[in-house]
Write a structure and sequence with these properties.
Chain lengths: 424, 424
């Protein structure tokens, strides 16, 4: 009897998610200088604030008991309203017929929303367009659900529109456009590249997707993952895709309170097109019938009494400092053949080596880095498989978010040494 | 364009989960006397205890920051060890080669474990044996995943072994035994009937399942849902199915800290057969890559410093009192044609009316009860669809767990009046 042939197709398709071994490596080897983990900055976590909010929440009898009780599947009604207000304020939108708390669902991190949306829209063989490179955990979801993750080339300001057009045309030509369900776009300080999608590009991309609906015979959605939006420490904000979807019909907006506030509470959310609110809620009902209520009440209180807003600048200053540290370290210690772009938000630098370089998990560079006590995310994990190009192996995701600040310079220095020795 | 034909097969199979409308009805109509919700007893929720634990957790710098940071997909290592110790102590087992923290996964409530296990074992068309009646949210999972939930008759001490034998034989005879993946058994104070499965019956049932493996060509698991085990207020405990699976090969043990401690923190767990630990973790990695770390640290602290153990008798006394209130009210107010068994744990009474009665969602009894401000769970929700019998519509699940204690008597009195008027 084969040890796996009793598993479901989903389980047999699923590989070990890279995030699991990366997180485990980081947690198991506290002495290592990890430039890999997508952890948040422990130094600016709002410990005192969460302590005070918890004390307040758990002080009064009835409210405290409500916070420790079950809630509804969609989430705490007050948090859903506050979340909608927050999203609308950020985008200069007014709540209205197409944008009500009924379209807001609170999830266990935004990751759960990505899973739910993919699960309710896609059967095996369906197509989701992804950025090339993209968030590697999302590629794991696609693998498990049998989704054909089809990459679209990235430029400095988001996906390349000419490649999007070419990809859509080729799906039409091959008769596969009917399998296209949505485009997954990490539009703010993207994981892994740190790039932000320009607003005009959002408009064009959304229009191009909609123009294929007739050929597809069904709606084509855009899933905007804005998980890093609030971790912006330089420059202006960009309006979301949601602002281009005022009828609330096509854009799924995913964001989280986990990264920009208290990571260990794991509260994310989605603002959904009306067509999707009900299927997503049905499936969330089966997954867990509602995210931990105490955590939701905590976030609602933080939003309501201004703690969330007051903490943001503290946190942003912390990340900016770390970004500056890493930027300086990269300039000082990286050999000339390594290139990167400065980032204005998020947690990551994306370092590119010459094309002949190999940074993948078993490569001499990766192993040497580990031997020198440094872990990074091999860039190839972030690229979908496609016959259209070989998978690039010459990139690295370097995190400045979760690395203790005193380790950033030393980690980059050691990595720079390893790369110099690689004699590329 | 049809409004749903772009959805996945899973989404198109999924109906609105009954738990969602029941919870919503309860939350939206606070004036109603709800005997429906599976809420826990708000009066004995450990408000002060959680407040103190949070204060302790968030006091010291490094530990507080770790609690507010991401953890690993499988869960906090200390909580996994404490959980294994707790399960072993409860069952008189010794941790060993087959029972290590590596087989423990911490989930967002035990509900998430039910979903994950079903997802990694079952393709559409696969078979799971369920009790008749069973936990209705589990039937929703089966519906969504396309699982053929095949009911086995219930007796006062668990599934009827003769019906289990008959069912297994008929699967063999029809050549469908290869589709059978596991049996889902709610073995302690079952939701909805309040019944506990006897130990000898567990032994027999497990042996019968294993005896079919050769014909099936793969392992057949038993998923033991012990969510109500710690809510035992009368009588002795029963050893788990896990004690009959000392090699750790076939029994998936699911339990939770949500019901017997702090509901709003939503922390459950599974102790898995080795064969399943990896696939479950892979899929959990895709769902959310780990349950909220703060909540896990809270439970670990409660287990470690004895708060959990000290709170159990308080909570049990509260539930016993409520059970007594409901029992007295049923005896006083129910017409003679209603029958029920006294329960020794859990949150529910299961009331049976004459077979000709109809208590289903749109029935005159249900509507009249609502008109009198009383909500119950229609029993038909708890029965799987099967050609083998018409779906019984003559039962009601009555919760004494979440109903404010002063409403239990009045709720039962009103319901008794409605039933008397039904002239059955």
């Amino acid at each position: 009897m084969n040890e796996t042939d009793f598993l479901s197709s989903l389980a047999r398709r699923s590989g070990d998610p890279a995030i699991s071994w990366l997180m485990k490596m980081t947690l198991d080897r506290p002495a290592m200088f990890s430039l890999a983990a997508g952890f948040t900055d422990s130094e600016t976590l709002p410990v005192a604030e969460v302590g005070e909010l918890m004390a307040e929440l758990l002080r009064s009898g009835a409210d405290a008991r409500a916070a420790l009780q079950y809630g509804s599947t969609a989430g705490d009604p007050e948090l859903r309203k506050l979340t909608l207000d927050y999203v609308c304020a950020q985008d200069g939108l007014a709540p209205g017929a197409a944008l009500t708390p009924d379209e807001v669902v609170i999830t266990s991190g935004s990751q759960q929303l990505l899973y739910l949306v993919s699960e309710v829209l896609c059967d095996p063989g369906d197509i989701v367009l992804v950025e090339d490179p993209t968030y590697f955990v999302y590629l794991g979801i696609c693998e498990a659900l049998g989704i054909d993750a089809t990459p679209v080339r990235m430029e400095n300001d988001g996906i390349a529109l000419d490649d999007l057009e070419r990809t859509l045309q080729s799906l039409k030509d091959s008769g596969r456009i009917g399998r296209l369900k949505f485009a997954y776009l990490v539009t703010y300080f993207q994981n892994p590249t740190g790039r932000t999608t320009g607003f005009e590009k959002k408009r064009e991309a959304l229009a191009m997707l909609r123009s294929c609906e007739k050929a597809a015979g069904h709606p084509i959605f855009a899933l905007e993952d804005a998980a890093y939006r609030d971790l912006r420490f330089d420059g202006p904000d960009t309006p979301s895709l949601k602002t281009l979807d005022t009828d609330g019909e096509r854009v799924i907006y995913a964001n989280t309170y986990t990264k920009p506030f208290a990571t260990g509470i794991k509260v994310g959310y989605g603002v959904l097109p009306r067509l999707l609110a009900r299927p997503v809620l049905r499936t969330k009902g089966n997954h867990d019938f509602g995210t931990a209520n105490l955590n939701q009440r905590l976030v609602a209180l933080a939003l309501k009494n201004g703690v969330y807003a007051r903490h943001l600048p503290v946190l942003r200053a912390g990340y900016r400092r770390r970004r500056d540290l890493m930027n300086a370290a990269l300039q000082q210690h990286m050999p000339k053949f390594v290139s990167w772009q400065e980032v204005r938000g998020g947690l990551y630098y994306w370092a590119e080596l010459p094309e002949r370089a190999d940074t993948s998990r078993g490569s001499p560079i990766f192993v040497n880095a580990l031997d020198h006590g440094v872990l990074y995310v091999p860039g190839d994990l972030c690229f979908a498989e496609t016959p259209a190009r070989p998978k690039p192996r010459n990139c690295m995701r370097l995190s400045f978010g979760g690395t203790p600040s005193h380790q950033i310079e030393e980690g980059v220095r050691r990595l720079g040494g390893v790369l110099k020795n690689a004699r590329l």
